[in-house]
Amino acid sequence: MQKQLEEYTNYLTVEKGLAKNTLESYQRDLLKFIAFINKHKINSPEKIDSETINLFLGELKTNHSATSTISRTIASIRSFFNFLLNEGIIDHNPALELESPKIEKKLPRVLTTSEIDRLLGQPKAGDQKGLRDKAMLELLYASGIRVSELIDLNLSDFDPRVGYLRCKGKGQKERIVPIGSVAINSVNEYMNNSRIKLCKNNGEVALFVNQHGNRMTRQGFWKILKKYAFKSKIDGEITPHTIRHSFATHLLENGADLRSVQEMLGHSDIATTQIYTQITRKKIKEVYEKAHPRA
User: Fold this and answer.
1) Which of 39, 89, 148, 278 is the most exposed, fewest CB within 10 Å of its CB?
2) Residue 177: helix, strand or coil by DSSP?
């Protein structure tokens, strides 16, 4: 089935235009499934039935895989067999009748504005790395972009004169996001006093570079954020998505409409954005219960 997996991966990349992270998740799920199939001496997709798939899912549960992982794995297998069906390799999809486990939706973690201030105040303004780190954090909070979008930014994507940022999201969909004066000033200061010294290659087009003068990596930014999160002494884990969640929630708390937030975040479905309204409702309820004498 390795050959079919390669063809399926090519189909997802070329025709579906899936984001790199989504594609890698599908591949990981299916490689585990194929390893299970090989272990049980099943050498043809026509011989795989729903019982076989359930045995594999049972093994995942035994190994304490998260409910979300199992649900995604079912979606990966179902999509793979749909591809095989459309290609005429099999005559039915054995994964169609599988029921995905119910996933309890947890509200994303959101930092308060004072916690954001503490975090963004950590980088030292007096050195090259500090200026760069400050610019990245300010821009992340000012725009709500994903970490992958942040590190993919090129010099041509940032125009301080108009106060907008151009980025490419999932499926290479381009969007324009407004940014505020604080972030603009931080990026300008980084470009004038830090990037010019960090960047050793005049042909480098990346907006944010590492100490070697090359494009900043996802792993590199995670290490930077982890360092400042520790220094800020904020309880709990802080990820790049925590800042994205905080951006959206703070906008809604201050009167932004849902459609505008959806567009800025690059969500294709407004239902994805609506989770932030639940956070604001929860906060309003907490304020009411603390403040009202008869709550």
Assistant:
1) 39
2) strand
Q: What separation in angstroms does the CA of 251 have from each of 52, 187, 257, 268, 276?
A: 48, 22, 8, 19, 10
Cα 19–Cα 25–Cα 30 angle in degrees, nearest 5 = 125
Phi and psi based region of residue 190 (left: phi greater than 0; alpha: psi -120 to 50; beta: remaining): alpha
Number of Cβ atoms within 10 Å of the Cβ of 247: 22
Which domains are delineated in the chain? 2-86 (1.10.150.130), 113-290 (1.10.443.10)
Rounded to whole angstroms, how far apart are CA atoms 237 and 246?
14
Give 10-residue mean pLDDT values along the chain (295 residues). Answer: 87 82 89 92 87 92 88 92 92 86 73 95 90 97 94 93 87 87 95 91 92 93 95 92 93 88 86 78 65 58
Residue 90 structure tokens: 């099999």
Q: What's the pLDDT at 283?
A: 65
Amino acid residing at 25: S
User: Which one, of 197, 191, 208, 231, lies nearest residue 154 by Cα?
Assistant: 208
Q: In sequence order, what are the residues at sequence separation of 6 or more whose Cβ sits closer than 8 angstroms to the Cβ of residue 140?
A: 147, 150, 240, 243, 244, 247
pTM, two decimals, is: 0.64
Q: Which residues are catalytic?
A: 146, 170, 241, 244, 267, 276
CB burial of 129-161 (b: ≥16 within 10 Å; e: otherwise) equals: eebbbbbbbbbbbbbbbbbbbbbbbeeebbeee
